[in-house]
């Protein structure tokens, strides 16, 4: 993993951009009170993701990737997680080998985000195993959020929908 050095202002901006990207991708209609399973070791991206979820009023069910696979599957199912964030494609690959986790992915999970992804590392067998559940990378979600923030800064109209979107961009929901 790369070493990351940010100022507090840059951390705030990264959280805001990821939060906007999560809302846009919904990560499919992410709502206050939703729970997202976050299976990762500590990292800057883990911190940013956890904060961005809270910015949107969601909560995270957190566990490190060294936990036994059955424990991760149990957390995924019993937390009623609507989303799954994993630190690498390898963690996702382990999860789809577990019948309980695969059932949860098909039944309740609306999106998957991978924090650390080598280019092309999400292989077709992984994508096939999760079916129609979209898989995003941290970079994709952050870039989408960055564009949403930029659009809000450049917008001149102020409809009620614009005002609500802008409120969520500048201040956390929760």
Structure, described:
By secondary structure, the chain is an alpha/beta fold. The protein is built from 8 helices and 5 strands. The chain has helices spanning 8-25, 44-55, 69-78, 89-96, 99-107, 124-129, 138-154, 160-170; strands spanning 35-39, 59-63, 83-86, 111-114, 135-137. The protein has a 5-stranded parallel beta sheet, with helices on both faces. α6 (124-129) links the parallel β4 and β5. α3 (69-78) runs parallel beside α5. The protein is globular and about 50 Å long. The protein starts with 7 loop residues before the first helix and ends with a helix. The model has no long low-confidence stretch (mean pLDDT 86).
Shape: globular
- Count of alpha/pi helices: 8
Largest sheet: 5 strands, parallel
* Beta-strand share of residues: 5-15%
Q: Give the helix/strand class.
A: alpha/beta
Average the pLDDT over all residues and give the rounded result: 86
pLDDT under 50 segments (min length 5)? none
Instruction: Please report the distance between the alpha carbons of the first and last residues.
Output: 31 Å
Helix content: 40-55%
* Topology, number of strands: 5
Strand ordering within the main sheet: 2-1-3-4-5
What letter string, H or E per element, gives the SSE order?
HEHEHEHHEHEHH
* Radius of gyration from the alpha-carbon trace, in angstroms: 16 Å
């Amino acid at each position: 993993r790369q070493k990351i050095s940010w100022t507090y202002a840059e951390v705030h901006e990264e959280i805001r951009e990821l939060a906007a990207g999560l809302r846009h991708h919904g990560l499919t209609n992410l709502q206050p009170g939703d729970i997202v399973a976050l299976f990762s070791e500590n990292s800057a991206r883990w911190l940013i993701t956890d904060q961005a979820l809270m910015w949107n009023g969601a909560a995270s069910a957190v566990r490190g990737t060294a936990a036994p696979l059955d424990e991760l599957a149990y957390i995924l199912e019993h937390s009623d997680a609507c989303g799954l964030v994993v630190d690498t494609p390898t963690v996702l690959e382990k999860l789809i080998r577990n019948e309980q986790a695969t059932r949860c992915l098909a039944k309740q999970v609306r999106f998957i985000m991978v924090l650390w992804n080598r280019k092309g590392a999400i292989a077709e067998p992984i994508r096939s195993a999760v079916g129609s559940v979209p898989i995003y990378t941290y970079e994709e979600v952050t870039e989408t959020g960055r564009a949403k923030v930029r659009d809000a800064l450049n917008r001149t109209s102020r409809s009620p929908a614009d005002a609500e979107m802008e409120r969520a961009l500048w201040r956390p929901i929760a």
